[in-house]
Known about the structure:
Blueprint lengths: L11 H7 L6 H16 L6 E6 L3 E3 L7 E3 L5 H12 L3 E7 L21 E4 L8 E4 L1 H20 L2 E6 L2 H15 L6 E5 L6 E2 L22 E2 L4 H8 L4 E8 L2 H15 L3 E6 L6 E7 L12 H4 L18 H4 L4 E7 H6 L11 H18 L3
Parallel strand pairs: 1-4, 1-8, 4-7, 8-11, 11-12
Antiparallel strand pairs: 2-3, 5-6, 9-10, 12-13, 13-14
This protein binds ligand PMT.
Amino acid sequence: MSASSSSQPFSTESYFQTQRPPAGLKEKSEKMHQFVEKWKAVNGKKVVLVTSGGTTVPLESNTVRFLDNFSAGTRGATSAEYFLSQGYAVIFLHRLHSLRPFSRHYSHSLNPFLDLLSIVPSSSGSSSSIVVSPDHTKSLLPILQAYHEAQSSGSLLSVEFQTVNDYLWLLKAVTASMASLGRRGMFYLAAAVSDFFLPEERVAEHKIQSLQGTLSLEMDQVPKVLKPLVQEWTPEGYIVSFKLETDTQLLIPKSRAALSRYGHQLVIGNELHRRKYEVVFVERNSMSKPEKGTGDDRIKGTATPPIMESGESEKLDVAGLEQKEEYKETWLRLDDLKDEGGKGRDGEVEIEELIIKELLDRHQRWIDARE
Length: 371
Ligand code: PMT
């Protein structure tokens, strides 16, 4: 199939037919499969896939330059910790070198680990030793305990991706394994996935030379894998996607549009600058999942999506969605917590703790609705 941008856009199917799987896919998929099988055998154990960090789009196959997507991986790494504390087994599918559960508290920029340590000088010929400074011990102790608990129980599996191609192949593979969990599986898709990519036959082999003057790039749209994920790969999974916007006005209509289009359970909307302090849960009033392929039709009675995803059309037809009473929104705000005597945004509560608390209940109801 031709993959130029002047031809048909890639469907999910044609993407996987034409773009090669990344090196190491087999081994990583097998690890994730074994992890799922292990926890599937434990009665009632819930498993969550947390995707985290941005994806890259290499411009050269011997890669010197690449395009990147914004994300430090804070949302994913923090959420993974709270899922673990609530008894979930967690597959943490994350961008290479982005923040990770537990170690995120000691990132080199915010809290360099060398600053935690003190040297105890040698006494009578023995060598000096190193201890954690007493003022850091109190905060480190619970983190270390939770980390050791995750290590010894084997309830956290971390798998890395770098490019958008790695991400898509790994997502497909892990979803195939998790589908067998039925409703016990949750998908928490917090990664910032590139909307555009360069098909492999248009990627330069060697470093692009500056001698050629200006550089023009024509990129293809990455197929929205959320659709097959929801409708084919794991019809029973509890699926949470994120919607990032810089214009708050768009958060709710675009989140509703995503629910309508893909037919999954929940969209968590977040605005770039306030994402650490407030998020909005957008969901249907009833727990039911729309029948296959009916997502768009539910809004307008046509197959035309009311709000297109980026790259498809910028025209927003919000009216049909705003009048619908079938959606509800729940805002979670750290400021609200402060007003009620809680710790608020300057205290120790993280918004992910509130998000995961809300999700526990929803996931359990999703499981119970089946039985
Ligand atoms: O890591 P931090 O710095 O803490 O930032 C966290 C975050 C802001 C990145 C996170 O909270 C967030 O909003 N992540 C999703 C951002 C995003 O990629 O949104 P999107 O509109 O491009 O995609 C929406 C959903 O569609 C995503 O859940 C994604 O998994 C899915 N998608 C995206 C592209 C694609 N080709 N297929 C998809 O299915």
